[in-house]
Amino acid sequence: MAKVELNALAGDAASRFPLGRIHSIETMGTVDGPGIRLVVFCQGCPMRCAYCHNPDTWAAGADAGTPASVEHILELFESNHAFYRSGGITVSGGEPLLQPDFVGALFTAAHDSPHGRIHTCLDTSGIAFDPAAPERFDALLGACDLVLLDIKHADPAVHRELTGRSAARILAFGDELARRGIPVVIRHVVVPGYTDSVEECERLGRLIAPWRNVVGLEMLPYHTMGVVKYERLGMPYRLADVPAMDKARIPELRQAVLRGMKAARSGA
Ligand code: SF4
């Protein structure tokens, strides 16, 4: 992992585009979209996932994070263009949908790059989508090549317990992506005692079955590497007693999701 010095990207007051508030930038991302990617981590998230490894991205608002301009991010990308040949730019978080104007401007500029079209990917929980004002996301979604959509739990009550939020906006965002035909990879963190039952995974499969634009499924085994961050920040960690997920069970649970999808699509 290579993080860039954010001072070098400080917001450019002369930018033609809305500035972003960002947490950090990873210049050699290999897990958030295809190929090697520049990954921009936005500042601010309204969710409070019990297993979140980045609680330092939660704070939102004018004073949180570091301002960054579209121009500076693209310059950083272009300075290593050959390196990103089969990759592109991913915007992650925190929650990038909190800043649709910035992300929309960045993605549009990436597609229009004079050095060649740059592949764009949005890594999101979908929580900040507003189904009452979908037009606010037109620019962003109109220039988005791929979405990594994180579904935390298929059961509404457990979803709220695990994240502090209803899943309604997340599901509405999934519906919006399906309506637009934007390719989506579903991500699901598998946490012992929370999301590791065959029943829950089958239910997840049924939940996402109507979305015909789903092109991939990533089952991410929960690990405990984020615990030290909570200790450093002096924050309580809700899953302190939960062990890391046994990776050997992931294929079985993945099959359960696919089985649920297939059953729902066949009307069973
Ligand atoms: S949505 Fe992501 S950044 Fe926000 S609390 Fe959950 S895991 Fe953390």
- Uncertain ranges: none
What is the number of strand segments? 8
Architecture, according to CATH? Answer: Alpha-Beta Barrel
The secondary-structure element order is EEEHEHEHEHHEHEHH
What does the radius of gyration come to?
18 Å
Supply the helix-strand structural class.
Answer: alpha/beta
Output the strand order for the largest sheet.
3-1-2-4-5-6-7-8
At the fourth level of CATH, the homologous superfamily is Aldolase class I
State the separation between the terminal residues, measured CA to CA: 45 Å
Q: Given this structure, which CATH class is correct?
A: Alpha Beta
Largest sheet: 8 strands, mixed
Binned, the helix content reads 25-40%
Ligands: iron/sulfur cluster
Per DSSP, the total helix count is 8
Count of the separate structural domains: 1
Brief overview, please?
This protein is of the alpha/beta class and 268 residues long. Helices cover 30% and strands 19% of the residues.
Question: What features would you describe in this structure?
Answer:
The chain has helices at 70-78, 100-111, 138-142, 156-163, 168-180, 198-208, 227-233, 250-265, and strands spanning 20-29, 37-42, 66-68, 88-92, 119-124, 146-150, 184-190, 214-221. It is of the alpha/beta class and 268 residues long. Helix 2 links the parallel strand 4 (88-92) and strand 5 (119-124). The chain starts with 19 loop residues before the first strand and ends with a helix. The model has no long low-confidence stretch (mean pLDDT 94). Iron/sulfur cluster (SF4) binds next to loops. Its main location: cytoplasm. Pfam families: Radical_SAM. Belongs to the organic radical-activating enzymes family. This is Pyruvate formate-lyase-activating enzyme.
